[in-house]
């Protein structure tokens, strides 16, 4: 989507060639919701550009009117027998082609089929286009998995078998041997017979069983097996009712995994009645969840608990029972379903190739175990590498940029503000990716976090078997800006490899909007320096949906964006944004977010309606919820390296509104109303941050350290700055943020009309809403230039002819050479119509 025209060095006398591309006309308005929470229309269709070739075929559950669904697809709209693939009818609402589709137009349809073979009429015909450039990722058929699957036990970690014996010989010399045996010893010393009901401690027992499984699998000491057998005896002696087994979403699978691991590891030692007891419980769990999952999960945008934890364990239950004659007829369709849904919708929803977590940076850690285990198992059994999916190929780099070593995360969503450094499971995931994908970013990350890696226990069995080394140098050509187009985020760093010098920015405007663990924060940003927060979303994630969460954490007022008449964005996939442009070089990094659709009314998702009612909160304008007359909210954000941030907001509404510009800090603001300036200081890290705002509309600063609703558990104070603008229908706001060490003086900003001189940077920003928006940035010591304008800029003494009058244009150095990048708006693949092509300069 980006292209650079290299022009030599900054002092080159080379003439600028004239562009031949005249730009691209933009398609019409995007639909009201870019991602449905529950699919309402079949996928793919003509207005869906594919994320992956082959794309899954998915039918809304409501359109399945029989017991099963059958699919047909062809490159001929007449579906001739010799050119058409027709699937075997299945209970679920998806179909994977398991082969690369040729470029061109494809046609598909579906029909419902009864268990007695009765066939209903075919649906209407849908079409879609496969392009040469669509990333290709093919998974093998289920028949391949079934043919190669192991028939012996233990099998859960069969992907480690080829190095297991060597690991056993060397286990005592492994640096994590003491951690392995230490956790197992704790499990050995726990007497679960004292519990009145062992199932009330299912999560604790699950952890003990895992530690004992790992120790026995590697060390082969009988005491670990005996303890596992003791735990099994206690569990089997206590009948568990359906009301307890299915009392919570994680409860059944927490119980099931203990039975699964004991059954797998001790299979040859268990008595028939013990096996039967385990099998009967696993069949209860498998039947219950297959009935509720089949048809629903493939059509749900992302059911957190299913993908975090349950899907893996439900597959494992099927995996250890599939070859047992008494259960095969029931279990094999379930095994196939979970294999097919992973192929269709994993990883990261299936509509995200970026490597970051679409559901919030704070919640990727809860998914890591499944993200490691399932592709490892599938790759081993099918002899096809599931880690070559684009998401996995980008995941290591995404860890580096969004959750950097020795730093807080720069990302967004529930829990993303927690911790002063990455979690140990993220570090362990980097180690895994470095080994399996030879990814240099992952290798550097794991090496930077090696102490955290060794503290992790989820990957311990893997690490103690797979001991190979990997490269630990950060690639020399690491860019300063990464644009995550599918997820709708941007990450920018000034000194990525040096956290004590690094200034980092995370920016979000996402088509995934505000869902479960994402929040209502389109066009918001987080700013960090030296690994700590300077300005960040506020509030504390202590509860998923209590009053504090709803009013002072998830709400737009808690984020560095805007309110319209005091109203924020809904907790809904309808309140979406989009990063439409992003580019960067050595001196300037830039992105543009469009949150014009984000302020779309109240939250009508039944989950949130119920949560509001439970918290005693009404969705009224007084509480910050409701419709707004907003028609445009474009936010341009530039980092002028190393430590100056420029934000240019274009705001429009169909009537005069009050604009509240928001900023949140862990330290108190020191406003200077006469200079439209506010200062914060970090005395621990030794720096201060100055914010200045400019607009033709008058405004006043106010600040508070109070939440609308305080957290249930007392927590450190946070400061909330609001710039409140006089009511107007149109507004332009220029914000300049400067970070300086305590030993240095913050450069002055000199304003002359719409021109602002800031150190070596010249910033020209049209602030009058009656004139076309324009933002031009130049540097007097190098040739870097940014231009958002209708005019053609002069670059190195020559006029550069724009291809589009409203493009964003950057002339900057990258990899030792200067070049031009020009962009028009990027339309996300989820809504981009067939035939649309985003163009920049060749």
TrEMBL record:
<feature type="region of interest" description="Disordered">
    <location>
        <begin position="15"/>
        <end position="47"/>
    </location>
</feature>
<feature type="compositionally biased region" description="Basic and acidic residues">
    <location>
        <begin position="32"/>
        <end position="47"/>
    </location>
</feature>
<dbReference type="InterPro" id="IPR032518">
    <property type="entry name" value="HepII_N"/>
</dbReference>
<dbReference type="Pfam" id="PF07940">
    <property type="entry name" value="Hepar_II_III_C"/>
</dbReference>
<protein>
    <submittedName>
        <fullName>DUF4962 domain-containing protein</fullName>
    </submittedName>
</protein>
<dbReference type="InterPro" id="IPR012480">
    <property type="entry name" value="Hepar_II_III_C"/>
</dbReference>
<dbReference type="Pfam" id="PF16332">
    <property type="entry name" value="DUF4962"/>
</dbReference>
<feature type="domain" description="Heparinase II N-terminal">
    <location>
        <begin position="204"/>
        <end position="466"/>
    </location>
</feature>
<dbReference type="InterPro" id="IPR008929">
    <property type="entry name" value="Chondroitin_lyas"/>
</dbReference>
<dbReference type="InterPro" id="IPR013783">
    <property type="entry name" value="Ig-like_fold"/>
</dbReference>
<feature type="domain" description="Heparinase II N-terminal">
    <location>
        <begin position="33"/>
        <end position="190"/>
    </location>
</feature>
<feature type="domain" description="Heparinase II/III-like C-terminal">
    <location>
        <begin position="504"/>
        <end position="686"/>
    </location>
</feature>
């Amino acid at each position: 989507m980006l292209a650079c025209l290299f022009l030599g060095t900054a002092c080159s006398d080379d003439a600028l060639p004239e562009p031949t591309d005249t730009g691209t006309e933009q398609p019409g308005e995007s639909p009201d919701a870019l991602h449905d929470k529950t699919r309402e229309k079949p996928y793919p269709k003509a207005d869906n550009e594919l994320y992956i070739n082959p794309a899954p075929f998915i039918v809304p559950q409501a359109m399945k009117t029989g017991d099963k669904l059958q699919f047909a697809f062809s490159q001929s709209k007449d579906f001739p027998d010799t050119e058409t693939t027709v699937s075997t009818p299945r209970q679920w609402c998806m179909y994977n082609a398991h082969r690369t589709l040729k470029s061109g137009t494809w046609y598909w349809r579906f029909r419902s089929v009864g268990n007695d073979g009765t066939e209903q009429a075919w649906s209407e015909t849908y079409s879609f286009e496969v392009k040469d450039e669509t990333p290709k990722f093919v998974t093998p058929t289920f028949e391949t998995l079934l043919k190669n699957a192991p028939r012996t036990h233990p099998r859960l970690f069969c992907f480690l078998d080829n190095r297991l014996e060597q690991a056993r010989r060397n286990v005592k010399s492994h640096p994590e041997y003491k951690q392995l045996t230490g956790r197992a010893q704790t499990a050995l010393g726990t007497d679960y017979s004292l519990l009145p009901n062992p199932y009330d401690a299912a999560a604790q027992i699950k952890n003990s069983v895992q530690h004992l499984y790992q120790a026995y699998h590697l060390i082969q000491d009988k005491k670990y097996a005996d303890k596992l057998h003791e735990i099994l005896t206690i569990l089997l002696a206590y009948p568990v009712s359906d009301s307890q087994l299915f009392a919570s979403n994680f409860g059944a699978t927490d119980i099931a995994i203990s039975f699964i691991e004991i059954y797998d590891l001790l299979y040859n030692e268990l008595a028939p009645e013990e096996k039967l007891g385990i099998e009967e419980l696993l069949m209860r769990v498998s039947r219950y969840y297959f009935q509720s999952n089949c048809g629903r999960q493939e059509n749900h945008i992302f059911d957190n608990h299913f993908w975090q934890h349950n899907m893996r364990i439900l597959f494992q239950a099927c995996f250890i029972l599939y070859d047992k004659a008494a259960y095969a007829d029931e279990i094999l369709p379930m095994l196939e379903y979970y294999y097919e849904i992973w192929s269709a919708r994993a990883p990261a929803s299936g509509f995200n190739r970026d490597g970051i977590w679409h559901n919030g940076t704070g919640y990727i850690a809860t998914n890591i175990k499944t993200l490691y285990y399932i592709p490892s198992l599938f790759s081993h059994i099918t002899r096809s590498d599931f880690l070559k999916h684009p998401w996995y190929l980008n995941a290591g780099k995404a860890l580096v940029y969004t959750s950097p070593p020795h730093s807080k995360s720069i990302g967004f969503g529930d829990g993303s503000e927690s911790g002063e450094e990455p979690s140990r499971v993220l570090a362990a995931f980097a180690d895994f990716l470095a080994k399996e994908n030879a990814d240099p970013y992952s290798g550097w990350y794991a090496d930077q976090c090696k102490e955290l890696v060794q503290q992790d226990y989820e990957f311990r069995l893997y690490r103690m078997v797979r001991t190979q080394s990997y490269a630990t140098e950060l690639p020399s050509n690491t860019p300063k800006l990464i644009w995550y187009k599918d997820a709708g985020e941007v990450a920018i760093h000034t000194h990525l490899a040096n956290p004590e010098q690094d200034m980092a920015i995370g920016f979000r405007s996402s088509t995934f909007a505000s869902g479960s663990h994402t929040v209502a924060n389109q066009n918001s940003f987080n700013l960090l320096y030296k690994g700590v927060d300077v300005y960040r979303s506020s509030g504390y994630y202590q509860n998923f949906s209590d009053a504090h969460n709803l009013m002072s954490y998830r709400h737009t007022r808690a984020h560095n964006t805007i309110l319209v008449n005091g109203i924020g964005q809904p907790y809904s996939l309808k309140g979406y944004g989009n990063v439409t442009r992003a580019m960067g070089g050595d001196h300037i990094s830039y992105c543009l977010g469009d949150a014009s659709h984000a302020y779309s009314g109240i939250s009508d998702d039944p989950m949130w309606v119920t949560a509001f009612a439970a918290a005693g909160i009404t969705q009224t304008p007084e509480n910050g919820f409701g419709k707004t007359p907003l028609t445009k909210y474009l936010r341009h954000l530039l980092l002028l390296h190393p430590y100056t941030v420029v934000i240019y907001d274009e705001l429009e509404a169909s009537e005069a509104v009050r604009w509240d510009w928001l900023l949140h800090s862990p330290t108190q603001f020191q406003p200077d109303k006469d200079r439209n300036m506010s200062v914060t200081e970090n005395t621990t890290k030794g720096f201060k941050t100055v914010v200045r705002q400019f607009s033709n509309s008058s405004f006043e600063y106010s600040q508070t350290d109070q939440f609308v609703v305080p957290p249930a558990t007392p927590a450190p104070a946070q400061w909330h700055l609001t710039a409140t603008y006089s009511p107007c229908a149109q507004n332009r706001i220029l914000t300049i943020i400067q970070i300086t060490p305590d030993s240095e003086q913050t450069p002055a900003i000199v304003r002359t009309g719409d021109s602002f001189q800031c150190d070596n940077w010249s910033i020209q920003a049209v602030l009058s809403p009656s004139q076309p928006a324009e933002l031009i940035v130049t540097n007097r010591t190098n040739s870097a230039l940014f231009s958002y304008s209708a005019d053609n800029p002069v670059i190195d003494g020559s006029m550069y002819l724009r291809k589009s009058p409203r493009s964003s244009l950057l002339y900057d150095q990258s990899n030792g050479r200067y070049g031009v990048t020009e962009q028009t708006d990027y339309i996300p693949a989820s809504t981009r119509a067939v035939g649309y092509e985003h163009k920049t300069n060749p």
